[in-house]
Design brief:
Structural class: alpha/beta
Largest sheet: 6 strands, parallel
CATH topology: Rossmann fold
Number of helices: 6
Distance between the termini: 27 Å
Bound molecules: ligand LXAUTJHC
CATH class: Alpha Beta
Number of strands: 9
Number of domains: 1
């Protein structure tokens, strides 16, 4: 796993634009090197803003959207089309505006889907889809995602891995149901740490002063049980992509003069 690097942008708009450009570059590079690319999307304010910027950016035309697998890091377990679903928001921000292959857009099941309102079955279904997509060279039950985007909550949750919850201890399953989440809605589906850590690159996105303490803790050597974002690491690279407000309390070793 790679140690994290922090990159600080002037404000949330610059953060969203720069991250959109980064995504396009990573996807183009992956398609050039391996024929296709894969990305894990996040929900949340800055995560969806990044997708909207990517939809607007001319560089989006450099990506071959049909050779892309789209996965989600977590989902709010709500009916299909609910405006609070991460899938619904990602579709309206980006996926409805590009020529993605519907067969390669792998949304997490909704609460009125084939498993009904049972998030455990829905989590198993998603884990099975990931396992089918994994190839022998992936060495595990999930594909080696090219990039996994994660938001971070003020409580330092990433995906739907909340502090002190049982999902944090999962070391076998790639996807779990989460019940009793402290942030609504209480029922969710989430990738686990082993699935997140299968990604080549993990990017934690944070905007706003309300995230500054969570970012500081995640970069201060805290344990992932108390500070889940501290456990989000990529195989090759881990980036914390921040605006100045979210970076306001960075540990000294991350606060490079050129970034502030
Ligand atoms: O509920 C969720 O929240 C987090 C962070 O959201 P934000 O609006 O505070 O940035 C997000 O990462 C996660 O995917 C989502 O389900």
């Amino acid at each position: 796993m790679s140690g994290p690097t922090a990159v600080v942008h002037r404000d949330s708009s610059a953060l969203a634009k720069a991250t959109a450009a980064r995504i396009a570059t990573v996807l183009v590079d992956a398609q050039s090197a391996r024929g296709s690319a894969s990305i894990v999307l996040t929900g949340g304010g800055i995560g969806v803003a990044v997708l909207a910027e990517l939809a607007r950016a001319p560089v989006r035309d450099a990506v071959d959207w049909r050779r892309l697998d789209v996965w989600w890091g977590d989902e709010r377990f709500l009916p299909d089309g609910d405006s609070e679903r991460n899938e619904t928001q990602a579709r309206s921000a980006l996926l409805d505006h590009v020529a993605a292959d519907p067969e390669r857009v792998h949304a997490m099941p909704p609460s009125d889907g084939p498993d009904g309102a049972d998030p455990e079955y829905a989590a198993e279904r998603y884990a099975a889809a990931l396992a089918r997509a994994a190839r022998p060279e992936d060495h595990g039950p999930v594909p080696t995602f090219d990039v996994c985007l994660l938001g971070i909550g003020p409580d330092s949750h990433v995906a739907s891995l909340f502090p002190e919850q049982p999902a944090l201890y999962e070391d076998e399953r790639s996807v779990v149901a989460v019940r009793g989440a402290p942030k609504p809605p209480p029922t969710r589906i989430s990738l686990t740490f082993p699935a997140i850590r299968a990604a080549r690159e993990v990017w934690v996105l944070a905007s706003g002063e309300g995230k500054a303490d969570a970012v500081r803790l995640a970069l201060s050597g805290a344990g992932p049980t108390q500070v889940p974002a501290a456990g989000a690491r990529g195989r090759s690279r881990t980036l914390f992509l921040l605006d100045r407000d979210a970076a306001a309390r960075l540990p000294e070793e991350f606060a490079a003069p050129g970034q502030m």
